[in-house]
Amino acid sequence: MKAAVYRRYGPPDVIRIEDVPTLDPSPNELLVRVRAASVSAGDARLRSACVPQGFGLVMRLAFGITGPRKPILGWDFAGEVAAVGSLVSGFASGERVFGARMGSHAEYVTVSTNSVAAMPRTLTFEDATALVFGGMTSLIYLRDKAKIQPGERVLINGASGAVGTAAVQLAKHFGAVVTGVCSASNAELVRSLGAARVIDYAKQDFTQSGEIYDIIVDAVGNCTFARCERALSPGGRLLLVVSSLGQTLGAMLRPSRAGRKVLAGVGATRAEDLRFLGSLAESGAFKPVVDRSYPFARIADAHAHVDTGHKRGNVVIALP
Ligand SMILES: NC(=O)c1ccc[n+]([C@@H]2O[C@H](COP(=O)([O-])OP(=O)(O)OC[C@H]3O[C@@H](n4cnc5c(N)ncnc54)[C@H](OP(=O)(O)O)[C@@H]3O)[C@@H](O)[C@H]2O)c1
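YS: structure for the whole thing
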């Protein structure tokens, strides 16, 4: 099969399309023919080995010291079931599915049934894959870590990215009153996704306005507890989607500070959460935002666009 392969860390042109052996699903897995996958901020970080401060050694120990141990990037996908493992039930060949599995920038991916679900019927492959990266991250942070409640005041810093566009919509779905922080050019988009207020980060520092929030989500990486403390209500939660190693350890060791919480870290994809995101998409409550779609052969261009740090929502690749 064809796959987008990187053999060393570096700029977008380290990615090459190569022939690699086709995969065999284990008895508990599906083989999925990938039709679309997103090129995420996470893929760009792994490709360039450019990770938040302090995580350099951790990342290289996990993914390869001198070069990538697993040469295929990509974490989410949408496609068609090509083969069903002998112990799998509930899926059939040809069924449209979406999910998460490292190595999705390829014609085929194998995936355990814990990380895949039937694709929302109303969505294209590109839209379905664009639900996963930001949607899973925002769900884990808002619902599981912060335990968001109806009526809470939620601020999303970086509201126009993949995580931000999902977080605005999910917070709104959970009944929160949402403020989005983004540039002026993305204000209309963020408002259209459900933000009651939008703050232009070039004109105003949200931590200095005197406004108070119950939850602050940082999807940019420029929020510390010291900077945000005054903007957090008593019992408020600061969600560090992007955090340095020091901040991550600090959040684990001392989550409670001055009656407020700092939460960081990662979470796992679950099939029931994919089904939840899919049902929201079918009802129109969660609209995946796709900035650009590139043909698979131009995946290096997709990486270059992600590297700008200014994509709107998601960048996806489409496979024939
Ligand atoms: N912890 C986890 O499990 C986890 C999971 C997923 C992602 N992440 C991390 O979360 C981060 C966000 O991911 P993403 O995919 O959402 O990134 P992204 O799509 O690349 O975000 C880009 C967006 O950020 C906005 N932005 C840039 N500077 C800003 C600023 N100073 N204030 C407000 N907005 C600003 C840009 O808007 P403008 O163009 O308008 O500037 C752009 O729309 C990444 O660092 C990623 O690695 C962590």
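YS: worth flagging: The mean pLDDT is 97.
IM: good catch. Also Residues 154 and 215 are 5 Å apart (CA to CA).
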